[in-house]
Amino acid sequence: MDILNKPSLSKARKRSKSKVDIVEYKVDEYIKDLGVGKKYLIQTHGCQANEADTEVMKGMLLTQGFEETSIIEETDLILINTCAIREGAENKVFGELGRLKSFKRINPDLIIAVAGCMPQEEATIERILSTYKHVDIVFGTHNISKFLNYLYIVMKEKKKMIEVLSKEGSIIEHMPLARDHRFKGWVNIMFGCDEFCTYCIVPYTRGKERSRRKEFIIEEVKKMIKNGYKEITLLGQNVNSYGLDFIDNKYSFAELLDELSDLPIERIRFTTSHPKDFSDDLIEVIAIKDNVMPSIHLPVQSGSNKVLKKMNRKYTKEDYLDLVNRIYKRIPNVSLTTDIIVGFPTETENDFQETLDLVRKSNFEGAYTFVYSRRKGTPAASYESDITEAEAKNRLHRLNDLVNEGYHSGNKRFENKIVKVLVEGYSKNNKSILTGRTENNKLVNFSGNEALIGNIVEVEITNAKTWSLDGKVVSNQ
Ligand code: SAH
Ligand code: SF4
Ligand code: F3S
């Protein structure tokens, strides 16, 4: 195993003030056609940032002649794009790596690659070196652009290799991209995170906040429009701090959103917003611009001021509720969703009640809820906790019951209303039923013609269920 660079979480914590360079992607001549006659399979775990990275890695492979397959037995390369956010996410990947051992035994030429957030942690590398010796390539989030070089070394020189960088490099523009969807797609507007919420590994696995220049973002969106895309989702760990890292100019997320919404794109979404810097300018742009969708994901994490402080979230319950009220006042039709962690060290029943109270007052129409998971290297990892697993799970169940009421009432308010739906395709469970999303990001199922796929159609909602809506087509816009 060639180990070029190993990760270090303590190095990854450092934030340099130096300017971020922008570099054009280019592939070395000797790599050309590396994949002709070869197949690949990519498994993606984690958040939208990983989904977007997978689309880049697919693009890199396809441009060198690789073909995609979903069958492990016939693939030449399997790449796992990993997530480190919770222990459960990591265990899934280790389980998968264990399962792949037998495939490698049957086909010793099978190349197994591990990428994404987990390799950014020392512990992952140690475990791969000791227990998962059948892995051929390990790289992290900062050197995706070298993926084909690593692959070349493994394929041609029959070596194994690890390279993980703990300092973010340049922003690389014009990477190849093979998008998963034909009508909606991700657009990275920034990378990394500087928030350092005390429970969270992301600032270590993704490095410092780096915003993309607006020229490149606009160019990418224009290209998507030309290719028939109807919806874009702007991506960043905290989109509200977009532009704060520019040294030579002042340009905010609200300004970017405003400028993008003047382009002829039907729908713009964004994720994720940190509540602490959700500006009134931003609320105004969402309120005024018809193509900025009225659905906001606004992770709160907890309703207890004591816990929020320990989490380093930089707002109070009152600040959050005030923001929520300002949003509802200016955008009455908006759908708010959130993320919540239960069982954070020292969270008492009273703290948890504060969270339930905040959930009731915020009228969320959906939430991702999690039991706190200790992440080695983060500040909270050293916080003492006397919350048992059973108690944390009990809180999660109670929270979910409340959250599910929000899902249902959020759907119920659309019953008998006519909504606009971007038709995405046939439903997974029923091939005669079409499925799509409303402006408020609600899932709708309805019968209709294949020709509607990719269009925005008007649908009358006939029945609201907890997780989806049923409807019938009224017109084709
Ligand atoms: N950058 C985004 C979300 C990143 S991770 C944001 O801040 O909104 C997605 C969610 O995972 C977080 O919002 C949080 O609720 C949850 N999460 C992060 N670290 C966690 C941990 N150590 N244990 C449990 N949940 C965690
Ligand atoms: Fe993690 Fe907080 Fe950054 Fe979100 S804002 S990625 S929760 S550190
Ligand atoms: Fe997971 Fe990395 Fe995203 S840790 S949540 S894949 S940024």
Please give a structural write-up.
- This protein is of the alpha/beta class.
- Helix content is 32%, strand content 23%.
- The protein folds into 3 domains: 3-163, Response regulator (Rossmann fold, 3-Layer(aba) Sandwich), CATH 3.40.50.2300; 171-412, pyruvate-formate lyase- activating enzyme (Alpha-Beta Horseshoe); 418-476, OB fold (Dihydrolipoamide Acetyltransferase, E2P) (Beta Barrel).
- The protein has 13 helices and 22 strands.
- The strands form 6 sheets. Strands 1-8-7-6-5-3-4 form a 7-stranded parallel beta sheet, with helices on both faces. It has a 5-stranded mixed beta barrel with strand order 18-19-20-22-21.
- The longest helix has 24 residues, at 389-412.
- It is globular.
- Bound molecules: S-adenosyl-L-homocysteine, iron/sulfur cluster and FE3-S4 cluster (F3S).
- Iron/sulfur cluster binds next to helix 6.
Provide a concise account of the structure shown.
The chain contains 13 helices and 22 strands.
Which ions and ligands are bound to the chains? S-adenosyl-L-homocysteine, iron/sulfur cluster, FE3-S4 cluster
How much β-strand is present in the residues?
15-25%
Q: Biggest sheet: strands side by side, in what order?
A: 1-8-7-6-5-3-4
| CATH architecture classification name of the largest domain | Alpha-Beta Horseshoe
CATH class of the largest domain: Alpha Beta
Class by alpha and beta content: alpha/beta
- Based on CA atoms alone, the radius of gyration comes out at 23 Å
- Strand element count: 22
CATH topology heading of the largest domain:
pyruvate-formate lyase- activating enzyme
Low-confidence stretches: none
Number of helices: 13
**CATH homologous superfamily placement of the largest domain:** tm_1862 like domain
- The rough form would be described as globular
* First and last CA, distance: 58 Å
The pLDDT mean sits at 96
Instruction: Characterize the main sheet.
Output: 7 strands, parallel
